[in-house]
Each structure stands twice: as C-alpha cells, then as structure tokens.
Amino acid sequence: MDHSLTNHPILVTGGAGFIGCNFIRCLFAHCPAVSVINLDALTYAGSLNNVKDLELQDRYRFLHGDIGDAALVKQTLAEHDVRTIVNFAAESHVDRSITGPAAFIQTNIIGTFTLLDAARQAWAGKEDSCRFLHVSTDEVYGTLGPEDPAFAETTPYAPNSPYAASKAASDHLVRAYHHTYGLPTLTTNCSNNYGPYQYPEKLIPLMILNALTGKPLPVYGDGLQVRDWLYVEDHCAAIEAVLTRGRPGETYNVGGRTEKKNIEIVHLICEELDRLHPKSGGGSYREQITFVKDRPGHDRRYAINADKIQAELSWTPRESFETGIRKTIRWFLDHQDWVNSLMSEKYAEWITLNYAQR
Fold it and tell me: Is-contact 140 189, C-beta < 8 A?
C-alpha cells in the first residue's frame, strides 16, 4: 500500500542543506497538500539562505536544532504527530572527515541513532502508517576497479574514509531497527549529487566558483578518479518514489548512470563557462587547472547499479550530465547573492587548510 504524505506533517532533517532544501522544493511542487517541518542545526553547510523562499509558505516550518537532541526530537514527533521522517542530516565531506572525524561520528552515528530511537517510541502500535527514510551514500561500498560491476544493494560494505564509515554505521543501525523493532525504515544509497544550492567545498561548485573568480582549479592526483553523477532534482524524485511506494526494510541504490572522470568534469565545466561566461581577458578557463597532491585513501571509482529502483518504482534520471551541468552553471551565474553569502572567513580558512599544502 502506498504511503500517504498529506495526512501528517513530514519531518525533514537537514532540510537547510543542499539535497534537503531541493527535496522540500520538489515535494511542494508535486504535493500541494503536504506540510514540512525542517529540523536543521545550521552547521556550515546548512543555511537559512537556502530556504528563504520556503519561509513564505504556511505549510513550511523551520526548527533550529540537532537530531542528536533526544528531547527536542521526541517533543517534535509527539506535538505534531509526525509519521514520516526523511533524514538528510549528516556531515558529508570526505576531506573534512579526514581532518576532523569526531563531528562525523556524532552526527552520522549518534544523531541517526537518536532519531531512530525517538521514532521507535513515538510510532509504537502505528507502524503501518509511518515511514523513516534514511538518505545515505554509495561510498559505504568502498571502491571499484575499472572493470568491476557497479555497486548493487547486495554489495558488501567496505568504507574507506571516516565519512564513509560513519554512514555505513548509520545504515546498519537503520537496518537493525527494522529487523529488531519492526520500524518501517527505507534506505537510499546515492551517487555524487550536483545542482543548485550545493556548498562549494564539493568538486562541481568549487570549480565553477574558482573559475569565475580567477583562482586555480585544484584537481586531486591525476584526475582520473571516476564518479557516477546524479542531478539533485533526479535524486529528489527518487527519494519521493521510495518514500511513497518503496517496501519497508528495503534499500534502493540511486544513480545517474553517468560515470565520468574528475578531469572530464573539470574540462566540461570550463567549456560551458567559456560559452556562457567568457573570460574578460580572453582565453579558456582550462588555463586555471592545477593538479594537486591526492587526498589520503582516495577511492578510485564509484558506480551505481540502479536496476532495482527502476524495476520496482519506475524511476530513472531525467537529466543527462550535459543538461544537468548546464542548469547548474546557469544557476550559479544567476545567484551571485547566494554565492556571496557563503564567502565567509571560515570558508576561506577551510579552502586554505585543505588545498594550500597540496
């Protein structure tokens, strides 16, 4: 039986972050009667600037808080009779997990546990009308060789970074709460997302913004690392499909069926910027590409087998990488105020810390 999204408010955790804010917008566009409570701790990657337009809607409510705050989570679930949780809240950048892993353990493991246990208590006896969807990553599966088959839902976990390990642990907790307590959980493991509102520590927005400001475009190692790229709105559509029609207890891999080397991505961004926003002094943005020392334990290749979600839920990505990257670059060009709001001293410090010695 399909799960209704309109009878009770939906709790979206991490909804002021990149994927979370896009998901709320997609949900509002597709479901006129749905209402959302956005619980977000507003760490560096979550910003009220990401959800300014949402605040004008009566069916949207922002709640500043941490998923690790058990009292707050329990109160929210009880007060609003929440029966759907979509958990985006996470520390999600590999480089940051290498320099500061403690925050990843706290949010991704302890936070997810706190959320699960609050849901278990609040939903006792009414599990059939509830859903807990946990948004995870393909990085829990480790790395692939050039000829290895893509990650499937049955691929053994082999995380190689503190970030991936913390997400793997949270995935295991979600699975355990379903099998032990009957909590109606769902897990999605997605490939690399890109699109509007992405914090510019990740490859694509970093390259776009560095190119436009005349800074080096730092490419790790030889740039031949391969990722499967997924436009964020396609990911949001997949989450909605899993949430409404997925089978509780199941995992669904979500991928864009677009494997590309990092250096290919950088070249494509430069080509699009050369066309959409030519350099005032002439020449190509490619001239700014700089190869830097690789990060420790850098996984060589990720690829997602999305056959299960396609077969069971009829989901496929709508955007090719070429159409998605054009939309993304156009968005960053058209939203300079949003970009400027992020260019804080802390952001500059992070970029210096991560790239200066490479």
Answer: yes
